[in-house]
Design a protein that fits this description.
Structural class: mainly beta
Number of helices: 3
Number of domains: 3
Order of helices and strands: HHEEEEEEEHEEEEEEEEEEEEEEEEE
Helix content: under 10%
Number of strands: 24
CATH architecture of the largest domain: Sandwich
Length: 355
């Protein structure tokens, strides 16, 4: 019995040893999926960092200045006395210069009140050489009277031969108009130099327009002449700045037609240098012969914003739209015929009293 137990025990032990130790399960590592990052081609231009280049700023140029050296200097809408007068600048006023005519005899300026206009270059002192002023890109066309059909008398005059000048000399001829008609009795001067202060300087040569408005000045030394006129009954002569007579030896220079303006339009109220007690004075003037309409201009004397800028009216009274500030004022009235030709003008100044 004991042997049998031992035998069974031995068999059991042998069986256990034959089976060996239990297998340890193998540890499995999880597989991580591979991620492929796409490669984007980068051009050389993109790879290079580009910084914006600063645009150079040109230096700010100081404005060109002109100082008025005449006691009173007219500012006009264009480069010539045939243009409307828009104001007056006084001696010592400093103007901003915008441009010049090709000849440099007129300057486009900006006045103390900001108004732009043209003044004669002879009556200002520039702070730079005149040739350094930029030339105007555009110049207002000059006002001109409508084309006229010559009267029979004028036609005969046109056919009348002009005597040739003597050796080494020249001559000049032209025609004077007023109200679009030939104007007789006007004294015409050709001056080697004309100034607003003092008129003709140096040599001067004169003639008087005939019934056809025509004049001829003979035996002129060759050269360039300024043109001035004096209307019968007028105290002062008018210099036509920008108009020149180019006289050559052995030739007769044709001076363009001159439509003169009279200065006898009568201003009624306010009277010259009057001090008015109201801030809304009525401007009145006498009706002018042959006038179809008028233009009114009003601005502070010595600088300031223009109050009335060439307003057109058929009346001879102008009523203010708003009260004026106390101070001195400059006003002008211009008379025109039905064709738009200027016949006459007059200017004055008055003072609005303080409250």
């Amino acid at each position: 019995m004991r042997r049998r137990f031992l035998f069974v025990l031995v068999v059991l032990i042998v069986s256990i040893l034959a089976c060996g130790p239990a297998a340890t399960p193998e540890k499995v590592e999880p597989t991580r999926p591979s991620i492929t990052t796409p490669t984007v081609p980068v051009s050389e231009a993109e790879a290079t960092l580009t910084f914006p280049t600063a645009t150079p700023v040109p230096p700010t140029l100081a404005p060109i200045k002109a100082t008025v050296k005449a006691e009173a200097l007219n500012m006009r809408t264009g480069p010539g006395v045939e243009y409307d007068r828009i104001g007056v600048v006084r001696e010592g006023d400093v103007l901003d210069v915008v441009a010049r005519t090709p000849a440099g005899d007129w300057l486009k300026v900006r006045g103390p009140d900001g108004t732009e206009g043209w003044v004669a270059a002879d009556y200002v002192t520039l702070d730079i050489a005149p040739g350094e002023v930029p030339e105007a890109a555009e110049i207002p066309p000059p006002p001109s009277p409508p084309a006229q059909t010559p009267s029979p008398t004028a036609a005969v005059s046109l056919e009348t031969p002009i005597s040739p000048p003597s050796a080494g000399m020249g001559s000049a001829t032209g025609r004077i108009l007023w109200n679009d008609e030939p104007f007789a009795g006007v004294e015409v001067k050709l001056c080697t130099d004309w100034s607003m202060i003092g008129g003709c300087k140096g040599a001067e040569y004169t003639a008087v327009s005939d019934t056809d408005g025509r004049y001829t000045i003979a035996e002129l030394p060759p050269g360039t002449y300024d043109v001035a006129t004096q209307v019968p009954g007028e105290e002062n002569e008018t210099g036509w700045m920008g108009m020149k007579a180019e006289v050559r030896s052995g030739e007769t220079a044709q001076v363009k037609d001159l439509a003169v303006v009279k200065y006898d339009l009568q201003l009624l109220s306010p009277q010259e240098e009057e001090t008015v007690q109201t801030a809304m004075p009525a401007l009145t003037w006498a009706g002018y012969p042959n006038a179809a309409y008028y233009k009114v201009y009003l601005a502070p004397w010595g600088g300031g914003e223009t109050v009335i800028q060439f307003e057109k009216t058929t009346d001879t009274t102008y009523t203010m739209a708003s009260p004026l500030q106390p101070g001195e004022y400059y006003w002008s009235i211009y008379a025109y015929n039905a064709r738009g030709t200027k016949l006459a003008e007059s200017s004055g100044h008055f003072t609005v009293a303080k409250d």
